[in-house]
Q: What sequence folds into this?
């Protein structure tokens, strides 16, 4: 604020001594924050900044016609079914907390049925308990019958093996094979990793994909013992109650982005669609953001940028701003996949057991995983009955297709992909009729591959970006591909931005 001398003579005041009048400073302009990418990472980052920063003007820029990224819902035979993730981790708080924050708390639901099967040796068998495919109970493994007895008999020898040495990181496949043999990798580890990352065990990082197990292996030479310990929560107090592992949202997880957008707009955040960021330029203490819109090119200004786009897009934007980070992001491998949702008359499907099944690559099937959506989620079962007018009149299944090395499975048209998927489902669970409706959703270069050295690479990316100033990054390429992990990375980026804004506010009084 400014102090100004003023003459108080007149108006009945006889003193000639001047006085001081306080002239308020003009209000400080808010810090402009530009979030590039309107998927759940960008939306969650904007939400977190809006809650944590005292003075921020936030704009989210999304290239497509609608925010939400891979989280969306569409109807199959009149029943809403997620096209992307249909569940979020409930064991970590971020996704469920965000849903509660945006008024979806009454719609958070949990699976009605648990337990998956494994397509092994020609049929579905109960999936034994594992940590990312590593067995945690040899008796349960034996009872499941997913491995030949000759392989099971070898496993107890692992307890006496010397520690397997590796430098910093190792692939899941190589490490598990060295301890338990190739059959465990091919039968158990591959389908679990394929279901999460659409990747291959021999390329994926143990440190990045199974961090809790990796940490336990630093002090436990036995992989079986480390997996058993990790499955119990890594030292959780004996008898402590465990909550559900997964949660969903009534109406679909794809409702979450819309609820976040509504909350953002209520709180003054601008969400722009059909706005493609073409380049970023650092000028003194702010950013120039060049965007293409349906009305032509615009230049936006911001003090803070949060990049919430896939790694290759981030690499392009950073190529002249932060070449080392751009290089690391550009080297990340990506996998493609598709989801196929099918609706069957209920009287054409044999009784289903559990929530779905996984398929090892060695089985040579098109489907890598399937879930029985109308068994798993009560709200889908209710919708299926309502839409067809009779109890249990529809069965909704959702299958995943595609992983690294199996891209040819995706290079067919929708009808052929549905036919192959239907063939696998018919053989697996006994379906006697064709689907009455289906939906195919293709995700090209959608899932980052956490290859060996991923954690170190992410540390380098963050360290190099920190040197730029006014720049953060978040998304599935960093700390996990699940919805909760992605939101966690968004909150981390938002916290850095909010801290800088609040510190600047405190500095100017």
A:
């Amino acid at each position: 604020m400014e102090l100004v001398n003023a003459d108080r003579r007149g108006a009945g005041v006889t003193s000639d001594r001047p006085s001081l009048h306080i002239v308020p400073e003009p209000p400080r302009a808010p810090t402009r924050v530009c979030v590039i990418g309107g998927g759940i990472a960008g939306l969650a980052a904007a939400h977190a900044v809006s809650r944590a920063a005292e003075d921020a003007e936030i704009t989210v820029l999304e290239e497509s016609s609608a925010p939400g990224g891979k989280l969306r819902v569409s109807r199959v035979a009149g029943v809403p079914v997620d096209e992307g993730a249909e569940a979020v981790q409930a064991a970590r708080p971020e996704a469920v907390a965000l849903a509660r924050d945006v008024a979806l708390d009454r719609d958070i639901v949990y699976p009605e049925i648990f337990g998956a099967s494994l397509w092994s040796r020609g049929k579905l068998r109960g999936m034994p308990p594992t940590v990312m495919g590593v067995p945690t109970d040899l008796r349960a493994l034996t009872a499941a019958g997913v491995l030949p007895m000759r392989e099971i008999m070898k496993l107890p020898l692992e307890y006496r093996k010397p520690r397997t040495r590796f430098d910093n990181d190792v692939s899941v496949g190589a490490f598990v094979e060295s301890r338990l043999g190739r059959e465990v990798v091919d039968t158990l580890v591959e389908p679990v990793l394929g279901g999460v990352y659409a990747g291959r065990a021999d390329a994926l990082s143990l440190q990045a994909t199974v961090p809790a197990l990796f940490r336990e292996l630093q002090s436990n030479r036995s992989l079986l013992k480390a997996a058993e310990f990790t499955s119990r929560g890594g030292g959780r107090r004996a008898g402590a109650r465990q909550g559900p592992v997964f949660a969903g949202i009534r109406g679909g997880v794809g409702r979450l982005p819309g609820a976040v957008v509504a909350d953002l707009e209520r709180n003054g955040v601008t969400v722009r669609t059909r706005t493609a960021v073409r380049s970023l330029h650092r000028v003194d203490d702010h950013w120039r953001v060049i965007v293409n819109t349906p009305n032509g090119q615009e230049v936006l200004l911001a003090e803070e940028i949060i990049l919430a786009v896939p790694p290759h897009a981030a690499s392009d934007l950073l190529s002249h701003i932060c070449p080392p980070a751009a290089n690391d992001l550009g080297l990340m491998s990506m996998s493609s996949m598709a989801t196929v949702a099918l609706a069957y008359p209920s009287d054409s499907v044999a009784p289903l057991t559990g929530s779905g099944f996984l398929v090892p690559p060695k089985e040579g099937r098109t489907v890598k995983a399937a879930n029985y959506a109308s068994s798993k989620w009560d709200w889908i079962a209710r919708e299926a009955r309502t839409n067809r007018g009779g109890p249990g009149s529809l069965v909704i299944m959702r299958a995943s297709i595609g992983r690294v090395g199996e891209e040819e499975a995706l290079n067919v048209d929708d009808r052929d992909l549905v036919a192959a998927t239907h063939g696998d489902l018919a053989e697996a669970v006994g379906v006697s009729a064709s689907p009455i409706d289906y939906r195919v959703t293709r995700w090209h270069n959608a899932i980052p591959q956490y290859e060996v050295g991923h954690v170190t690479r992410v540390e380098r990316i963050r360290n190099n970006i920190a040197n730029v100033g006014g720049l953060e990054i978040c998304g599935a390429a960093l700390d996990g591909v699940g919805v909760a992990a992605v939101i966690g990375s968004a909150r981390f980026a938002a916290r850095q931005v909010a801290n800088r804004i609040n510190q600047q506010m405190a500095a100017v009084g």
